[in-house]
Design brief:
Length: about 90
């Protein structure tokens, strides 16, 4: 089951990303959430930036976007004006 969240719903973004990050390292402060899974990472900021990276590629989205999280499948999809990108959590 997927959960859709607008980036401007900051409290919910933090809550869902903390849950998604279980099994990895989660760092939160008032302006950003950072998830690290070995050499793969995700950063989401209150200002509307989403950055992901893993070996061989990176992704960056700035501005309005929707996060779609599928905790069971280990997928975080970023939907923005320029298209979408799916981050797959290592290990599912």
């Amino acid at each position: 089951m997927s959960t859709r969240i607008a980036l401007d719903d900051w409290d919910r973004v933090v809550e869902e990303l903390e849950a998604f990050g279980r099994g990895g390292e989660v760092t939160t402060d008032e302006d950003a959430v950072r998830l690290e899974f070995g050499n793969a990472r995700v950063t989401v900021t209150r200002a509307g930036e989403v950055r992901t990276g893993m070996p061989l590629h990176d992704f960056e989205q700035t501005g309005e976007a929707t996060l779609v999280l599928d905790h069971d499948a280990g997928e975080l999809t970023v939907e923005g004006d320029d298209g979408e990108y799916t981050f797959r959590r290592p290990g599912g």
